[in-house]
Amino acid sequence: MFAAVDLGSNSFRLHIGSYEGNAIRVIKSARDPIRLAAGLDQQGNLTAEAMQRALACLAHFKDVLAEFPVDAVRVVATNTIRIAKNAAEFLPVAEAAIGLPIEVISGEEEGRLIYLGVSNSLAIPAERRLVIDIGGGSTEIILGRGPEIVKVESFPMGTVKHSANFFPHGRISAEGFEAAVLSVRSLLEDATPAYQPEFWRNAYGSSGTVRAISDALYKNGFGDAQVTLAKLLALRDYCIEKGEIDALNLSGIKPERVAMVIGGLAILIGLFQELNIKILHPIEAGLRMGVMWDLYLRSTKRDRREQSVLDFLHLFRVDAGRANLAADMARSLYVQLKPANENLSNYVYWSALLHEVGMVVSHTGYHKHGSYLLENADIPGFTTREQKLMSRLVLSQKGNLRKIGDAFSDLDFAKAVLALRLSVSFMHSRVELDYKDFSLKMKNKIELELKQDWVSLHPTVAFWLRKEIECWREIGVEFIVRARV
Q1: What's the confidence (pLDDT) of residue 433?
Q2: Looking at the domain that runs over 2-104, which CATH code has it been given?
Q3: Domain Ppx/GppA phosphatase N-terminal: where (predicted)?
Q4: Which of 125, 134, 298, 329 has its CA at 20 to 30 Å from residue 421's CA atom?
């Protein structure tokens, strides 16, 4: 059983699902219209009121989750928390409220998860498709074929800001709609050539916004549930005729959602016009379903992150032999250090594989370049927090350790750094480790015991170890090397 919590810009949502017969069946869902994006002040900070609404919702979700024997949970935050200037202040208290880590995902990762949910729900293996998700703070456009993503982009336009900017005080006018649609088209125009109908067979709308507009069309006499430009323009004209959001009487749309639907309608019209969409099929699956599928795939050892790391290696032309040697040693050394749990094991391995990606920029200071790339690149499957963790590990692979700051208060992280640094040094010395030749421990101090003839067999190891002893001494950690017969 898996659970997905989506901290969206308009609503917070929870899905709990069970994998049954090649599908995930939702057995419990919850939703709270937090309107987080509307809670950003003029300086881009979440207001105290918005944060309190969010915390109350998260505490409720915690109670709901406690009622189910859930195997894995992911809490993902999207656009508003991505851009909120005081997100660092909000996240710790939010994590305390729900009792789980919150992953702030990039727009591209959001799009990947959306597509994962859609493709598994459709289960049409070779279909070329376009998927659109209009959220409260951003819009994701994904081009794919069957289960594979060809291209994904996230655009900073969402229903909350669009409604506030172009329909102020709830006034609806032809001029406001025209400006809202032109704004969308101007944001899209450079990207649109890649998403034209020649590259896909069917188009799907995955978000609550698209489904709400579809319901509005069907339940208010504009035609069936399939979305076309003619129907959207007819709904637009109806809204302009009414003139005020409060005057709209749209069956099937809750009154508090009407303003968001109007902003979403303008965005959708712009998408239809710029991408030359004829018919858009609404679909129930989206981000939350994608998160649950991602959890299921991880549980079956089909982790998207593994492929992303290999793709990153290829993209930056890393020497695979050196990367694999360092990664295998780092993982083995980390196991020998006996961490309190296995939480960092994969990240040690992946960071070692990627430790030389910065060489594509320069051989001088390549660890700094690699650290920057890992923190700022779009790496499918990884959250912002995970990329920052690997960025820090790659930065720590050489040079002084003061740059890591207070991270060494976590002993498992310190062990991860030690394993990575030694693996890189041994790789440079062309060492093939035989773990009967040495033992490695770390608690209050580092203790490395080597066979007496080991250093003579690998002459440069002595050089690297002298440097390593000095680096750890600089941060107050004693590093003792002993020889044994």
Answers
A1: 66
A2: 3.30.420.40
A3: 23-297
A4: 298
